[in-house]
Design goal:
With 767 residues, the chain is mainly alpha-helical. 62% of the residues lie in helices and 4% in strands. It has 26 helices and 5 strands. The longest helix has 66 residues. The protein is elongated, with a radius of gyration of 65 Å. Belongs to the GCF family. Keywords: Nucleus.
Amino acid sequence: MYRTFIVKSDSKADMARGGISNECDCSDADEPSASALQSRDINQQSKSSTLSFLDEKDPTEESFTVKRSVKREVVFQARKKEGSSASFPSFQGKSNKDVRVQSDSDSDGSAEDIPPDNDEGSSSTRSSSSGSSTAQRVIIPDARKIRAAKEKRRQARAQQDYISLDSPHTPGSGQEEGPSSGEQNSDNELDDHERRIEFAPKPKTLRERMTEKMGSDSDESFSDSQEEEDQQMWEEQQIGKGVKRHQKEWQAPRPARQKKMDIPETLPPVSVDVIKKRIIAKLDSLREVHRAREAELRRMQLDMEMAKSSLESLENHTTEEQLRFYRTMNVFSRNLLECLSEKMALINSVELDVHSLYIDQAEVLFSQRREALQEESSQIQKLTYNTDSHSNGDTAGDSNPAWQSLSEEEIGCVPCDLEPTAEQQAELQSKRDDLLKKAQEVFADVQTDFWDVKKILSRFDEWRISFQDSYSNAYIGLCIPKLLAPLIRHQLIGWNPLQAGEDFEALPWYSAVERFCHGQGYEETENMDMTTLPTIIEKTILSKVQGFVELVWDPFSAQQSQTLTTLCQKIQEDYSVFDGEQSKPVKAFVEAVIQRLRSAVDNDVFVPLYPKKFLEDKRSPQFQFQNKQFWSAVKLLGNMALWDGLIPEHILKELMLEKLLGRYLMITVLNESDSKHTIQKCKKIADCFPKSWFIDLNIGSSLPQLQNFSKHLLQIAHAIFNDNNGSSSTRKLLSDVLFVLKNIKAHDSIRSITEKCHCEDLLKALQ
């Protein structure tokens, strides 16, 4: 039998502690009579109080609702106690009680069973509720009954038959509490306004931290072991499935018809050659592998030897000794650099003064030659084009003793070099000696260890012998040329590369450097300083020679050109600086030579042209002046040919053949009326050509630039044969023409001359 009650409460604590619990706990109070209880029930039904019967349709079921401010719904259902039927006969038919708490705004709910209180509690609750509404006397239970009610409530909580409104735990959490903890959670718990607000989590004790750490480690290890077990189980399952499937496939009945394999009755024959080829191929591959292994073994042996040598060097030279040596070299290098940086300005000053002496002398000679040439040319020009018929070249030749008739030897003679006078040479020598004395005083206040090249290199030689690895790792061979450059330039102050008899190899620095690079024990050092001397030659010697080429060298001087080219040929033979890919100093030197030769051809060559009537007279000043200028140009042609192998061949051909020969010399040769003089001039010109130009030349014609030259010789030969057929002088001239054509490899012209002039014997004589 069920009953329904509606209980309204506005306080959570009141509802939990007083509204339900206290009323239910008062079951052991003084029991009223049954008639009184029935009368109370009737009065309660008639009055519209807080406690009222809502549903009277079902006499076996009653429900009550607790309205609270918290918007949730909780349903309580309690079982009837067996011992309560005797005390209250009016309620014997009622077996259970339903308690439902509904929220004003939420229709959802949850129900949970709780153990019921006794009927006395119910009657006391009804009496107290009705008493409050009828202003009757309220019976307050004593302490014993309160404790008994609390104990019953604790037991009900332990069974989790209902949810406490003030409990922070969720249903089904499975957390069991003892009697004391339950009482503290329910009765001794502070209200919301009395609780202390925690703004930070409480610090954990050492035991709690250790427990948490051990728990996490055990969880990780457990999870890892669980994963491994799962993985192993999965693998075993997969393997088992595969084995079962395989067994099923084998156990499955085979089809009735099976395809037969096509097996040939006869196999292709295998010959001995095929087997031999396969064996040879296999043997070759094994040999290749063997060679690779041997090469690797040699590399390993070389590395082992190097490691042993390094170990021996480390054992022989202690760390303290190395440190002491490195400190000494460090101090020496710093002092040497400070000394050279201080003396560099003095060295440059003295070197510039000496160089200025040679430049001034060269400029004086150049200006004298240009002035003399200009004066003579203007004077002859006046004589040639003088309107007065009585003042012709003959009278001028008689009045000027310098323009007398020339002999045959003098006509074909190359002019001499322009040399300074004795007074100019003496003055130059005096100033040069003063500057050399000044140069010797540059290192007068310096110890010999810091300016003597031999002693400086001995320090580095000691380093190379004692500590070879660190010497090579420091690239000392690349630093020495720049380090010794000031000292070498100091010794080269008085050296003139354009003057014969002076050789830089006779100076003290050269012997010291050569001994350092090629001295005793040079082969054992694996040629680590092999490029030291060639680098010094390129950066120091050629740089100094370049200055003389640009400002002092006279391309018309045979002596200066011969000395300069001899020096360059020697450097090329000993150090091969002009072969292959040239360095920057070498390129700058070659470019300076080319520019100087080009300037001489464009600005200093002058071969005038005069009327034929003046040139036929060998005593005329016009012929003599033209003859002198022609042979001066031929001299320049020969001086330019000395540079063969030092400057590019195509540039040399351009300067010699296209510019000098084609622009100046060929015009004079074509205007020559005397065949004998023409052949003489052509022979001199052909002698100037380098022999290397005609070594790999194809048989037939000569160089393209010499086509006009060979054609003119062919015309001269035909003219000589037509004028003087069969005479001895004619055969002599034809022999000279064939000799010139043979030197320039003009075989077509030679063949034409021999066929027309019938001079095969002359050609055989030349061979």
